[in-house]
Each structure stands twice: as structure tokens, then as C-alpha cells.
Amino acid sequence: MNDDSDCLKQLNPEQRKAVVHKDGPLLILAGAGSGKTSTMTHRIAYLIRQQGVSPHEILAVTFTNKAAGEMRERVEALIGDTQGMWILTFHSACLRILRMYADRLGYGRDFVVYDPADQKTVIKNCMKEKGINDKKYQPAYFLSIISDCKEKGKSPAEFAEESNAGPRDKMAADIYSAYEKVLKANKAMDFDDLLLQTVRLFQQEKDVLQRFRQRFRYIMADEYQDTNYMQYRFLRMLAEGHNNICVVGDDDQCIYQWRGADINNILDFEKDFKGTKVIKLERNYRSDGNILAAAHAVIKNNFGRKPKKLWTDKAEGEKVRYFRAEDDKDEARYIAAQVDRLCNGSRQYSDFAVLYRTNVQSRQFEEAFRFRGIPYRVLGGYRYYDRKEVKDMVAYMRLVQNSADDLSLERIINEPKRGIGEKTLEKLKVLANFRKEPLFELIRNTDILEGVSGKAGESLFEMAEIISKLSEEKDNLRISDIYDGLLVRTGYLKSLEEQNTVEAESRIENLLEFKSVIYDYEKEKEDAGEFGSLSEFMESIALMAEIDNLDPEENAVVMMTLHSAKGLEFPVVFIAGMEDGLFPGWRSFERSDGIEEERRLCYVGMTRAKERLFLTGAAVRTIYGKTDYTRESMFLREIDGKLLEGDAVFMGRGFDRYSHIKTGSYEDENTIYRPFEQMRPTRRESAANSGLSSEDLAPGDRVEHSKFGAGNVITVEKNTATVIFDSVGTKKLAIDIAPLRKLQETENNGR
Ligand code: ATP
Ligand code: MG
């Protein structure tokens, strides 16, 4: 940027006003794609090149590393370099400040930063010291309480004194306080501390605050609508005095209230900073007309919003395309087919983004993209088969298939926690080596287990029993029954449930989703008239899990949650899973502002699209291990039909409405409507083990087995029943684990 005009030329008059505004508070409150971030980066450039501001005087903060990186690039593009400026995330700005002054807080400048795994270890030790049962309470439970307190600046004492604090909270406060002592003694901070301690530093050490106030004479914050209390305090303290603070944001895009973001920070900005100049940007430069109109049609239904409407002089462009697939697999295939089709034209893979509400949805897309050979990247979140809990369950299933798989046993020997430490494991390994036996043989050997301290030895033996039994019966069990058996009987599921944290909950969701993978496999086999075997299934899983990590620079379709797409833009956007219960999610119906926050998220998603927006859903979805008919998302109903093409939208209530819904053919842009085929029946829930014992069965009983169907009991001996099945002939079954159900006389109409 060489002169005034170069920089300002590209801007509209309102943006220009914001860019040349030098001193005093400035609020840019504007809708999506109106150039807020661009205006901010232009302002930084202008301050430096035209207003004589030194780069050292600039502090610009945002939320994610990706967003901060992009901001730096945009400034660089304008003025060549960003040396001396602080264009950072909140966390990294605080870390830098603390590295200079943490000694004032008694930490030493070389304090370490603990990640969540370290935090859990500390909490675990505190629990041990206080004699808190680690079977009943999980470290993660305390961790989430501590983090929540720190975000709000609550001390352990304040937390314990809260009016509704029960004995459980008092115990948590106790742990919190012990945890703080350990961190302090170890000269360590956690992520939440970075903000909290910086604010404390500013409060206590006036000269430090003064120093930074003098240094950062121009402060900027992007996505201000998503700041939480500590981030707000941080900015407010720094800006006091000179008041040269410029924040940009959009109240319609506040999507982190569930994590403590306070929308009032932006709504009250004018009150907090007297003499604020407010600039509203109303022109959207990102999206074609129809996309923008559709996004507005959705967001305008929120009650708690300041009315505003964006305009564009771009052409209407293509209509928003809606596709209601038969099921979630079909939805993924449709999206992959569209990517392929559009890529035949002039588009690149990196022009496309697939956005979804929850990470578990990515699995179907991964499969469909892989099938078509479309390169993709999953942002944030892990690839499905990389997730710890999925890997753990795969290890258990491998052991059922092959108990000599030491690597798998090592992986899960202490998952869930059985009190097996590194040392015990090491000893067992040495012994196994010496005896030339697989590890698994050792944990079935009671003599050897006696050497392993009481409880731990017992639980190992129990686990070995479960695995051996399932292994003996594996040919008589459906894969999903084996999976259920492992999940429940090994205590894996229970241990997650007991943690009672968001993280554990999402792990449980992933595990239930894994059941959908198994159902799909079984269904495919059933359709081909076969029973899927465990070993074949494990092979297919292994193939999925071994796709190499993709190169981030590669020309690839990106997939991510709607939350992580904030601030980004793409030529073509797919928003998948447009169904009530998924998006908006059922949980949002429970909170008063829940639906409104989901609607803002929908608005964020839709406004990422520049030229093409696809909304998709599935009439039947298998998610978290359950198959259900779905209802089209309420957000679809809010969009004017004129802006949409594709399926008819929301045809009324009740199941029968599906009889007249038509589904588009996805290979073809000019949809040929084909009648919606007969709905697939809901897949049967797993029968698992029905709790029968040998006393419950007698020769002559009519029974139903989840894999083999109906049959007659011939003999019952101890735990083994011999049954002649109508379809597969005679089988010997272990009564306590077979998915057997006794049929009543009335159900007995086969004879
Ligand atoms: P979001 O709310 O999604 O964060 P935003 O308001 O920050 O959006 P930007 O990302 O800054 O919007 O800009 C959106 C797009 O519009 C970008 O591609 C940008 O280059 C373009 N743009 C912004 N201002 C102008 C302008 N005056 N003329 C042409 N293009 C513009
Ligand atoms: Mg932006």
C-alpha cells in the first residue's frame, strides 16, 4: 500500500470511515461477509502507513490459530510485513505477557503450561491424597468444574460458598484448591490460567498494566460476540485510558454461549466505552443473492436480535439446493457425487466444504469420498477411526478374534482403569516373554494373577473371562452383540458414563456411532444373504483405518463442524444433516436460548457459501447406534420455497407425509424426480443378552436368537443349550451370553 488511495480504493464508504477512524472506541457491528475482518486488517495497514502509528502499538486478537494466521496474511498482503505487531489468539497474547511478568505472581518466567492430560494427572493425585474414590469420581469431572470456575474467575472458596453448592460441590472445591496449590508449587499454569493470571497480573501490578496500556495504543478484537468474561476483562483493562479499541462482530453469529461466551459484551460495548463510534456494514460481498436471502430468512426468526438486513448487488445466482436422501449413506453419496460433478467443470476440490453439526457425521462422508477417490481433509476433530475410544473398542474386538494380539491387550489392559500401572504391565510382559506365551494367557492364569495386587488381578481375570467367552461364542453371535457385550461387560461404557463430562459424552456418542458402522456392515451382509463374520468385519475396519494422513496443502475438500467454520468462506458449501433433533439438536430444546443459538449456527453455516449452497438431510438416519425416521429441520421450513430447488420442503406432520415426498436423483443436476421408495424398516435394536440362565430353559422351549432367528431347544446342560434353528440347523450356545429370548405361546405361531 503506497498511498492513501491504494488502500481505500477497494473499500465502500462505510468501511472507509472505519478504516480512517483513528482514536476512540469503534464498534463495527455487521452481518456476515460484510467485510468486518477485511476492514480491520485494512485499518491496521492504514494506521501504520498513513497515521504514523508504530507496528509495536498494534494488538489484534481473535479466537483460533487459523483465524489469527489469516489475519496476519491479509495485513502482510497490504503492507509487506507484520513485524512488531501482535496479531494473535487471546491465549498466545496472554502467554507472551506472562512470560515477561509471571514472576510478579510468584511463578517464575519459565513456568510450564499444563495440557489437559497433565491436569488430569494432578487431579488424580489430589484425589488420592484426599481419599476420594476414583471409581466413583473421575478426574475429568473435577477438571470441567475447575475450568468453568476459572473462566468466570471464581476461586475455590467462592465456588464452595455458592448458594446451591451441595456436598459434591464442596468436595470439588476442595480438589480445586489442592489442584491450585500443586500447580503453583510446580510453577505451572493450565490454559484457563493464561487469561485468568494475566487479568490478575493487570489488577495487582499497576505498573505492568500501565506499560502494556502505553505500548498497545491500538487494540482490535475480531469475532467480539464470542468473548467470555475473562477475555472481556483483559481487553477492557488494556484499553482503559486511551480507549482506542476497535471491536468487530456480529450478534447473529454468537455461537459459543454454551462455552461461556457472553453476547452482552458486544451489545453493551457502547455503554462500556463512552463515545463509541458505531459503524454498520450492510453490504455483503461474499454470497450470491439467493444464498443471502435464504440465510436472512432463517436468522430473522430469532427474537433476541437487533434487526438488520444485508444486501448485495451480486446476481441472484443459483438457487439453494435441497436434497433429502433416503438415508445417511445416501446423503453422503449424494454430496460426493455433486463434488465430482462440479469438479468436472472448472472447480477444484479445495473450493468445497462440507459442514455438519457433530463430528460423528464425518464418518459417512469419509467413506463416500474415499469410494469416489475424492481427496478430503477433516478439520478439527479426528478422523473417525483415529479416535481413542474407537481404537480401544477395535482392540477389544481384535482380542475376541485373536487373543494372542499382545499389542491390543496392552492398549486396553488398563482401559477402563483397572489399577494396572506401567510397572505391573512391564512385569507381565517380561514373564510372558520368559514363558513364551501371549500376555493374554497370563491374565487367565490365576496363579500368576495372585502376584498382581488384589483388586487389579481380579479385574484382569474378569476381563479375560469375558473376552474368552465371547471368543468361544463368536460364531454364534452377531458382531453387534459381541460389541455390546464388550462395551457393557468390560465396564468401558460405565466408566465413561461416570465421568459425566462433555468430553466423555462425546466419546459415548462416538461409541454408539461405531455401532452404526457395525449395523451397516451386518445389513449389507444380510442383504446378500450372509452372516458377517467378525474377522471379515475387522479386515474392513483395518482398511478404513489405514488411510494415510493427508497433506494439509493438498487440493482437497474440507469437512468440519459448523462451529469451526466461523469466519471462513468457500465457493461451494454443503450443510448436511438438516433434521430436527440433529440440527437443531434435541438438547437445544432444553435450554431457553438453545434454538436461537442453533439458528445462529445455521446462519453462520449458510453465510460461508459464496456461489453454491447445498442443504441435505436423510429421511432415515442411523446415528449413535439407533436408526430413526427423521423430520426435516425447522430451519428449512423457514426458507422461502422460491429460493430453494430440489425436494419439496416439509410436507406436514406424521409419518405418512413421507409417502408423497420425492427424492431427487443425485447423479444429475436437473433432478429427475423418482418416487420415494418404500421406507426401510427401523433396524432391530440389539437383543444383546437377555439375562437367561440355564434354569430358564427346558427342552422343547421355543426361542428366538438375534442372529439365527427362531428355533427349538433340544437339550440344556449347565450353561449350554442345544437348539435346532428353523433356518440354520443345530447350534450349541452359551446361555449366559447368547442373545436368546424365550418365545411366548402366542408368538409361537410357527408351529
Ligand atoms: P464473517 O462475518 O463471516 O467473519 P466478515 O464480515 O469478516 O465475515 P470478510 O471475511 O472480511 O467478512 O469479507 C468477506 C468477503 O468479502 C471477502 O472475500 C472479502 O475479500 C470481500 N470484501 C470485503 N469488503 C469488500 C469490498 N469493499 N469490495 C469487494 N470485496 C470485499
Ligand atoms: Mg470475519
Describe this structure in words.
This protein is α/β, with parallel strands linked by helices. The protein contains 29 helices and 23 strands. The strands form five sheets. Strands 9, 10, 11, 12, 13, 14, 15 and 16 form an eight-stranded mixed sheet that branches. It has a six-stranded parallel sheet with strand order 3-2-6-7-1-8, with helices on both faces. The longest helix has 26 residues, at 502-527. It starts with a helix and ends in a 9-residue tail after the last strand. Bound molecules: adenosine-5'-triphosphate (ATP) and magnesium ion. Adenosine-5'-triphosphate (ATP) binds at residues 10-12, 15, 32-38, 250, 253, 285-286, 567, 569.
Bound small molecules, by name, code or SMILES, are: adenosine-5'-triphosphate, magnesium ion
Beta fraction: 15-25%
Q: What's the CATH superfamily of the largest domain, by name? A: P-loop containing nucleotide triphosphate hydrolases
Largest sheet: 8 strands, mixed
CA-CA gap between termini: 89 Å
